[in-house]
Description:
Chain A: It holds the Pfam family TPP_enzyme_C. By secondary structure, chain A is of the alpha/beta class. Chain A is built from eleven helices and eight strands.
Amino acid sequence: MPAPRTKFYQVGSFAVGNRLLPPEQRAVQAAPDRGNALTSGHRACRGCGEALGARYAIDAAIRATGGRMIAVNATGCLEVFSTPYPETAWQVSWIHSLFGNAPAVATGVAAALKAKGRTDVRVVGQGGDGGTVDIGFACLSGMFERGDDVLYICYDNQAYMNTGVQRSGATPPAARTATTPVPGGNAFGQGKNAPLIAMAHEIPYVATATVADLRDLEYKVRRAMDFRGARYLHILVPCPLGWVTDACDTIRVARLATESGLFPVFEAEGGEVTGVTRIRRRIPVDDYLRLQSRYAHLFADPPRTDVIARIQASADRNIRRFGLVD
Amino acid sequence: MLRQMEGSQAVAETVALCRPEVICAYPISPQTHIVEALSRITRAGRLGTCEYVNVESEFAALSACIGASAAGARTYTATASQGLLYMAEALYNASGLGLPIVMTVANRAIGAPINIWNDHSDSMSQRDSGWIQLYAETNQEAVDLHVQAYALAEELSLPVMVCMDGFVLTHAFERVDLPSQEQVDAFVPAYEPRQVLDPDDPVSIGAMVGPEAFTEVRYLAHARHLEALERIPAVAASFEAAFGRRSGGLVRGYRTEDADTVVLALGSVLGTIKDVIDELRESGEPVGAATLTAFRPFPFAALRALLGCKRHVVVVERAFSTGVGGIVSADVRAALPDAEVRTVVAGLGGRPVTKAALRGLLTAGEPEPLTFLDLDRDLVARELARVRARRRSGPSAENMLRDLAGGG
Lengths: 326, 408
């Protein structure tokens, strides 16, 4: 089913208008029988984008599969904060093996299900950006090229947050981390664009999403479950600890990432872009960067207008490349 | 059924008889013939719905086995050498999670210098990974150990590594008695996992465990290995009852009854050692041989029962711990505190362990506590001289090969 055309956001506010919709179009989270895959009481930080993204994504996957699913988790924040045994926040069958092997473990689970004729049960792999674009990348690429029946979700908070905010292959230019200190921050011209690399594998479905547009996130999980084979969903999940933002700004900063063009939200089938989320109200990258103290060195005295201009240029390129502005 | 066949083919046929549901394959010599044969067997439809997954690395091979095993499938993979090391993190994970994966290790040296030939430095390096390690003396035993491995692994919820000498066994054509499907089905019943990823009964597997219970969880792994010390001989006994031949078990002696000196070794080198023992026996020497089929868990009591009264034990090792010497010897010394235990490091990187060298060793007066069999001491001395002569002496391995080729 394509995404509903209804505008959910009232102009000037960000309220989701579930009450205005017929029940079948309402959010998964609006349903009293939602999966609640990641229950409350876990140990995520206040304002954690990953906890929010994971709950929405897995609940949407539960809805799409009728609860017939198994989750495979890489080592990282999500794993650590959700399973401090004897407590587990997971209401689905869940396995954690290692940091760098979640896609391969998911491959194995899918292979076992296929061998046993249990193709009604679907597999979702998940990990942070470090586990996905760095240490787990070979396994991820192998899973893609073989076309194993797995939806792999990367919760991208742009650094190794679990170990205390070190640079990853997904850390953006100029961002300060514990291993890319100021002056300078992270270098330009580095880093991996995992969604585009996933598309280069010509897998059935690749999409990006953010926790600022949770209806879109839910739609993309559901859409991904329409396909068999390897699928990839890359979700931007701000991290108050690592981005040095207020916990109350998680949604806002994610929205500004898309409104500035720095994080394009799109979907692609078979290696071709089939849909983009247009920017409703374009903003300069300054508005996004200023909220985050990991970029504070750009706004010191004197400000690094040259660096900000380079970041703006990359946002402008995204906007042109993906047609983000009408 | 008796057949003349390559060791790798025999192992592949046997693994197929065990009805694996997921096979993960990545090529590395000298293991490759096994997974090649299994790909043909799977493609021919002989394994029903078995999934044969061509993965991108050994790390992925074992990781996919972990996922498949946790989802309730009987799994198999094979590797060797660098591949086993590349799996190392997943090895500990598989045993820590208690997943009964069976893997063949076609024993091969570890580089640098890169070397594809046989020794035991790969599996010895994973001694403490929590896997049961069984060593095959012959291709027949390799076949039989795979059947026993699945029975053991699934009974104990522990992964089992069946180690067979690369090339010496994997590529050797020998007469092998392959079991029948009916026999194997009776010996290895359908896998019933203790833990399984099931949407109808959700569990979390692989949670973080802190200081409050980590010791106990790890101790349980040790306890299961101690249980394996009971189960390995029991499985070997029921195997003998069902298949009519002795295979496996913990330890085996050869002409040890009145022996004063016993040569102990793991794997195929025992064949050569037995020949030497026979020859020395003919000339009246009181010598015998012994082998450890199980190296992990280490059969202290069984070894003591077999060799407790012996005065001299010579451990022939196909690997060593740099800066120390013998790896197996350390455990043998602990098992036999009254015996004089000597270490002979032999057959590294495929160097033949000859009867002449072994005979010389056993008939020489008092061997050193640590001997490197057939070591070319002059070659080493010349390289040490080059190293002393100038700072930039260059890469040693290449220097020594050039030296051997006559280039000084």
